[in-house]
Structure formats: structure tokens, C-alpha cells
Amino acid sequence: MLTLPFISVADRYTYGKPVQGQYSATVCRKPFIYTWSSGNPELPPDLCMTMTGKLERSGCFSKKVELDFFNKVALTEVMTFNVNGSVTEDDTGVTISGSKSCQLSSVISTVTFEETDEYYKKGIPYTGWMKLASADGTPIKGQTIYLFTELGSQLLNQSYKTDDSGRAFFCLDTCDWSYPVSLRGSFKAQWQQWDYEKVVPRYQNAFLHLKPFYSKSKSFLKIQSVRGELPCGRTQHVQVDYIIQRNELHEDAKHMDLHYVVTLGFSQEEALPGADISLHLHSAAGSLCAVRAVDKSTVLMKPKEELTRDKVFNMIRPGYFGGYPYQTEDQVEMHCPGFSLIRERMLRPVDFVHPSLSRRRRSIMPWRPERDPDVYSLVQAMGIKMITNANIRQPVECPETPMYMHQHVRLPGTPAGGGVGGIDLADRRTVFYNSVPESVPRQADFLPDSQPKVEEQVRKHFPETWIWDLTAVGESGTATVPVTVPDTITDWVTGTFCLADIGFGMSSPVTLRAFKPFFVDLSLPYSVVRGETFVLKATIFNYLKEPIQIQIQLLRSEEFKVEAHPESEYTGCLGASEGQTFSWSVTPLKLGEVNLTVTTEALDSKEACGNEITVTPSEGRIDTVIKPILVKPGGVLKEKAHSYLLCAQGDIMGTALQNIDRLLTMPYGCGEQNMAKFAPNIYIMQYLRKTNQMTPEIKEKAVEYLKSGYQRQLNYKHDDGSYSAFGKSDQEGNTWLTSFVMKSFGKGRDDIYVDKVYIDQALKYLREHQVESGCFNSSGKLFHNALKGGVEDILSLSAYITAAMLELGLNDTDSTVKRALACLKDSLPTITNTYTLALMAYTFTLADYKEARDKVIAELNEQAIKSEGQIHWERKDKPKQEDVPYWYQAPTAEVEMTSYVLLAYMSQHHVSKEDIGTASQIVSWLSKQQNPYGGFSSTQDTVVALNGLAIYAGATFSEKGDVTVTVKSEDAIQQQFHVHNKNRLLVQQAPLTKVPGEYTISAVGKGCVYMQTTLRYNIPPPKSDGTFKLAVTTDPESCTEAAKSKFMVRVTASYIGNRETSNMALIVVDMVSGFIPVKSSVRELERKKDVKKVEIKPDQVTIYFDQLDKTPHRFSFSLEQDNEVKDMKPATVTVYDYYEKGEKSC
């Protein structure tokens, strides 16, 4: 008989209060596929029951369900109930869904063994507990349970009575035990018969198969468990039974539960937003603790990614995997007559496998010795490596005849032909710390901090992460951290883990509720396009015990207009524990972030609400919320920059320094792109130190970027020490990226901690890829197709790796470097590729191979393009130049190879005036290619160019200079900039109000200035330029009623350019305003072989590909409405080549 008495649906806000709305719940049981597939190809429909209605005031719905039509005893349906529920909030229309499943079971009761060993020690009583529980885990007390013990052919039966906890203790005499012993705990004395056609009641048994613990002298020791939880700081009495002979080592182990020694708590369990409170932390003296507090809504989105104690301890628990890594496992050679030499590897101590049901037939198998548990296997299970000459292993006895493998062997205690009531695997979890000293106060013991009464509160700080910091614990073992509660009304889930000399500790999570009984919450889209109108919804909540008179208004602004309600002011009555939603239609007028300010007030009124008297809150009766909305121009952004260095020498690092966190207007979602954020910090800090311009503020900022970049890069590391664009999702590491990471980590050690092991592992990996010629084999995908050119591609890679080793501090006395330089030198006569020559020039400069360097520089000078006092280098097959030469930016490969030549000039031991002169002409060209943020077109050109510019700027630095720059338009002064030594790194900027227009720039004074004009505008998506083919459709194709809340986007993309494939390609899908991506459907894309990574933002989905080829790549995902938007504008889908920005389609 199936029983499912209640189906419950509950919806609560993250601060614990109930949601009011409509619910829908569906309970289904699916047909069993294998039952129906043979007779009827069409499956019958699911057995489903649907319930709908309005949630109760508690935010819950609970209903007794009549499940008569689910009551089938035939095995035609799966033994699972699937329950899907959804709640739609009354006023906002926001729908939240959830699902649960529960297994159906015919098990009436279950017997399990507790506190038992997997072996016995002869002569020492074998003890343990049996527990009897019902199907839902409730202990069954006062019932008789049976323990069957099989000794060879002898079967013993003992009965026990369960106590109030459903447990029964047993103690068995082992003096007469000699062989493996089987135990079976059962609620029924008779075996049950199994029925394969229908559901029958089952009583699940417990099984143990015990082997004798080996001891050469027959000496044994056993530690008896101490029941319950053990507090720290107290003496405990532990009983030890033993039979000891001399000259032998004996050991036993027990797992015992302890309370956690790391705790944290707030000075109060609930606080007002903006309140100043304290966080109290307790750990071992001298601990360093990592503390984090995040919004509960963030935890609910990815609960499985939470760091928990079980996750941490499972990672370090060696017994879980059965002992030692194979590299440290002992091998014992055994010479047995009639058998070839056998090298025995110890069986895992937890591999005491139960035999199967019945013997059927035999087959010959290679002989593998069986071992009984011994001291060796015991310490192996604990993860301890013991070095001793004591007798801790059982000797192996050679067999007299070939061994046979039985396909099925009767389980001892199981009657032939009978069924099995079920096998229960013992829970072997190990629980670590579980104790707290009595002197440590609990969370409830903390005294609340005093709080001032707040008459009006403005809330505008709504972070997802509140605390993310390291805290040092002093010798007292305690730390108190003052914190300010953010403005979000929510629960803050807080936890910490600590490291100390005594080990690792982790606290249980605690929650601080940020709450006020009267507040307003705003619902608005993440972003809209200019010209669209969105519905702003403000919900006022009153959690006081009495009704209140309220007033709410949206403050006016020139940045938007309110169409439907110009006054935007409401008054009314709000009952106790109720909410009310107000709406405005808002049309933003300004691009960028537009702030919306809504103020609600509980009025001091004597007017009654119906028959109830209103009250006025004693504090917090005015609540003001400020939230921004991003207003985008729509279409496709075009961003152009024209830069000019007004003299041959000048400080050109200011723009890059100001924008170090956003040098590129591109995603940073792979390992190579992450390094493009990491490496420039190193070059800029080296420059600032050399020129004595480093300040504590700049250093702190740069160090934080280096730390985060270093930690993030480790996500892309392979086990062999290499790195690749997408980490272990790639089949192998990438030699090029590995060398880039290696040299950058080496340079970064001057400013942050970098584990030398990672550098050594990368170097070892690269050495292993050196071939007989001295050059290096390529592993993994080269990111940039411009580097592909047969043999010269290998030479370019080899030059890059050699340069990286030289930058790391190696020289030609190292055999790897010496052989690599010889390979490069011997290959010089065959090189025709300009990029390869530029790389070699830099490599030979670092190696101080003057003859080879001079030869390469001479060849490069012949290929140099010189005009207007500038020098640069180009590929023979570079992409077509745009039709706007004034705003033209060179492709990434041209910038990169030119930067390598600059490095070749500036990295010499002695840089002459002639070299500086040539370098200044290169710098003049490079500075014109910079984007508005100080970077360049892509990642590698940005990294290499900033390295060269930093060295050049450091070599030409001068503290002198005072210049006034004037920008004029039509004889009117628009703006003046004063640049001197104290503000030389400050980027000064001003808007040019008249576009289009003609402007003139004049400079007066002594010194150098770096000027840049940036033009940004948006255009409708342009037609394809012939490099990518892109098609976008929706499902459904028309705007149906259902599509207004949810629809699917289908994208097809392929590469149709001149090469076989593109470089790394990205597809960026902008969201239609008011819609957000359904994350589960987007995550499904990661299962596709061609998709390397997916990034999800509220208004955008970015999909990464190693490359796109001529084959159409198809994918789709769903969007769902998050907020209502009117007059919606089209959204853009773009595919582009990461390293050739001009190659794109929209």
C-alpha cells in the first residue's frame, strides 16, 4: 500500500518571511521503460496529479493527497515520485519553481550494524550494536531482532531486544573462531522470498563478513569505542583489551566524534541594515582564518558548490580510497613453485568484498593471494606510511593447485535458492573535530551592541558578497571584527575555516538576518535600451503586528520620465504582515547608469485601517531605496582611438596604470586571457619602482590584482604542470601558454607569494618537450593562426620558450637553453617570417648572442616600414585596412612583432643613443595603436607592447617637465590640461561637446605629453564582412502569448574566411530587455564538444570556442521574462575572432 499523506509547497523570502501568491504542484510517477518496451513500443502516459490554489498566509500549502490510482503492486512504474512546484507572487508576477523526488520503497524496516570492525581478533570479544529502524528512519524500540553467526558449516542464532533508541548491544566470544565469519542482523528469523513481478514488503538485513586479524604471535589489542560526543579539554577513560606477546608490534584504531574547535558568531542574530555590529571568531591561538559572508540568495542558486566540512575532510581522508598512492605502495616479490614471479601489491584494507549469491560455474583466473587484515593494512587505511622491521604483514602462502574464480558463491548464512532481504553497506564516514571548550561563548551568549535609532535610512548598498577577508587570531584564541551590515533585507550565510600549527579547522555556518519590520523592495530590469519603457515595481512590506498608514513616491529626475503617473505618489493603508505593490512606467532619457530613488514612509496618522487602529514604528519609519538601472544605446559599439606622443621621450604608462583592471574591452574567460590581466601589473610595478613613482595605494591595488590573477590561473593547470586555455577540460596542456605562465610567475615572485613548485613543474614540462634538434615540440592548440607556418611555427614557439627560460633567470650554461639557442641559430638562414625574426631578435638579445642578434636586426631593418618618424613591421598577408585611416588601429600581430623588436633594442646590457633613437620611433608608432584604456587590440599584443613600453619609459624617464595643453574649437577654448611631474601619471580627460567638429591642440612649456582622442558610437548591426556566417532564430518564431514569458534562441555559426579555421572565437548573445537566460539551459551547452566555456551575465551570454571551421555549429538556450518592458528594441548576437577583432559578424 503506497502512502504519501501530504504534499507541501512553501515559499519564503531570503529573510525568512512568507511569500503571498498562487501555487501549482504536480505529482508524477513514470512508467518503467523496460517493462513496456518489449510488448508495446509506445510508453503509457505518466501517472500525474496536479493541485493549484492560493498559498496560506504562512506562505505554505499542505494538502493530503489521495493516491489510490498510484497504488499498483505490479512493477510497471518506477519506484519514484517526482514533485514539481511553482509559486507566482501576487503583485509582481514573479514565478519561482522547484522540484523534489522521493524514492518509493517496500522496505518495512532496516537493520544496520553500528560500531563494528571489519575484522576480529581471536580471544578478544567482538562487540557492536544492531539498530532497528522503520522505513523513514524512526527507531523501533522493544522489538526482537536476530543475529546469525556462521562459522564454517555451523549457524548460530541469538536474539536481542531493542532499547528506546532501537539499538541492541551484542558481544561474541571469538576464542573458537579461526576462519572468516559471517554475521547477519535480521528483524525476521525466516528468509524472505523475492518476487520479480510485484512489490512485496521487505525487511532489510545487515551483513558483515569478518576476517581474522593476522598476528604472528597471536597477540592482539583492541580499543573499545566511547559512545557519544567527546568534549575537548577533558580527560576521557578508554578501555583497551589486549593479549600481548613480546617482540611484535600491535596496533588498533578508532574513529570518535569531536565537537568543532572553530566557531564564529555575530554579536546579535538579527540586525537592522546599516547597523554596526561585531563578528566574534574563536580558533586555535595563532590561527589565520578565512571568513566569508554571502547573501542567502546566492547560496540557494548553487547549493552544491558550497564549501562544507564533509567536502574538505573527504579530500584528505586517505582510508576512503583504500590507502596509499601507488607510488608509495610496497611490492612484495613471491616465489611460488609452479608459478611465475609475482609482484604482489597489497589489497586495499577496505576491499572485504561480500561473495555473491550461489555457486554456478568455475573459470580459471590468475592467482592473487588472499590476505587477512594485519597491522600493515590497518595503518595503510589510516594513510600512515610506517617504516619498520617489525612483523606487521601476514606472510603469503603459496597455493598447491591453480586457483579458480567462482562466478557466484553463496553468501554465508543464506539458504540455497533463497532470496536476500537486502544488503546494507555500513556507513564509514570519519568525523573530525566536534568539540568546543566550555570557555567559548555560543552565538546566543553574545551581548547585543547598542544601536542608535534611525529615523530615515537610505539603502543603496546591495552586494552579493559582504565579507571576504582574512582574519588573524591572536594568542588568546579569539578575534573580534567590527562590521557594518549591508542594506539588503536578507539572511547572510557566514562561515570560516582556519589554519594553524595544529592543523585545519572549519566552523559550522551561522546566519545573520538583516531585517526591519517596515521596508520597500524594488523590482526592475538589469538593463534596458534607450527608448524602451520598463515597469518599476515597488513592494512595501509591513511585518509589524498592527496596520500602518503609508506613503510612497518615486523621486523625479531629469534622467527619466514617468509616463503613467507624473506625480508618482501614493498613500494608503497596509495591514499587519502584508505587502502591497505599486507600479510606475519609466522611460530613461540618459545613457549609462540611471539611479531610481523610491521613498516610503509610515505616516504618523490617527486614521484607522478598517476597524483596526494604526501604529507608527518607533524607528525606521522612513525607508529610501536607491537602485541603478543600466541604459544601453543598443546596436553595436564602435570604439576608435587616435593617440600621439608629442615628443620623442615621455611618460606613456599613465593610461594603462589607470585602467589596469580593464586594459581590453573583451572577455577574460580563459587561461591566456587571465594572464593578460596578470602580466601587465608586473611590468608597470617594475617601471614605477625604477622611476621612484611607486605609492602605497598603487602597490596595494597592483598586488591585489596579482594575487587574484595568480589564484585564478591555477584553475587552468594540468596535473603534469602545464597550462591550457580551459584547464583540464582540454585534453592536454599548451607549451606556449605554459612558458608564458612560467616566466610571469617567476617575475611575480618579487611582489606576491608564488609557490616555486608551480614554476619548477612548468619548467620540467617544457624540458620534456625539447626534441633532439634542441627546439621544442608544440603541444596543445596555438591560439593565433597568424603564428602557423609549418617549420617556422616550431621556430617561433621555440624562440618564445627559450626567451621565457632566459627571462626566468636561466642562461646558456643550462643544457636545455644551450641546445635551444643552437637550434635557433642553425635555423636562421631558412627564416622568412617577420614575426619569427622579431621573436628571435629578442631571444638572442636576452642570451647576449651578439652576432646572431645583429644578423637578425639587420634583416628586420630591411623589412621595416618607416614613415613620418615612425617605424613598425607588418605581415605580408595582413588583414585589409579600414577606410578611416585617422582612426586606424593595427592588427594584433603587427603590434606584437613590432613590440618584440622594441624589446630587442631595449633589453641589451648597454643601450646606445642610436638604439634609443630607433626605439623612440617604434614607440611613436606603438602609442598610436593603443586603445582608450591603455591596452591594445588583443591579449598578447597588450602584454608584449606594455612590457616594451615600460622598459622604454623607465630608460627615458625624466623628472623635469611642465606643459599646458589647450584644446580649441572654432576659436573658443574648450579645455586646458596642466601636466607636470606630480600629476604625470594622472589621466586627465574632458568630453568634446561638438561632434562632428574640428579641434586643434597646442602645447606650451617644457616636457612631453601623451594625447589621445577617443570616439565612441553605436550603429545598427553591420552586414557580414565575409569571415563568419551567422543565423539567429527564435522558437516560437512569432511573439505568441507564451513567448512573452519564455522563448528559445537558436544560433548557427560557421567560419567562411580565407583560413581553414578561425582563431579562438566567441559568440556573444545580448539579452532582450526584461529577459534573463535560463541558466540550466545555458549550462547544457557546456556538454557540447565544440563549446569550451560559457559565461552567464544577467544581460549577456558568452560562448567560447577553440576555433570555428566551415562546419555549421548549432546551439540553443532559453530566455525567460524577469521584468516587464515595453517598446522593446532588438538584441544583438555577435560572433568574432578574438585575435582579429576586424573579423566579426552580427
Automatic annotation (TrEMBL):
It is found in: Secreted. Keywords: Disulfide bond, Glycoprotein, Protease inhibitor, Secreted, Serine protease inhibitor, Signal. The keyword Aminoacyl-tRNA synthetase does not apply. PROSITE patterns: ALPHA_2_MACROGLOBULIN (PS00477). InterPro entries: A-macroglobulin_rcpt-bd, A-macroglobulin_rcpt-bd_sf, A2M/Complement_sys, A2M_N_BRD, A2M_TED, Alpha-macroglob_thiol-ester_cl, Alpha-macroglobulin_TED, Ig-like_fold. Residues 1062-1145 form the Alpha-macroglobulin receptor-binding domain. One of its GO terms (molecular function) is serine-type endopeptidase inhibitor activity. Residues 465-554 form the Alpha-2-macroglobulin domain. Transmembrane segments: none annotated. The keyword Magnesium does not apply. One of its GO terms (cellular component) is extracellular space. Belongs to the protease inhibitor I39 (alpha-2-macroglobulin) family. This is Alpha-2-macroglobulin-like.
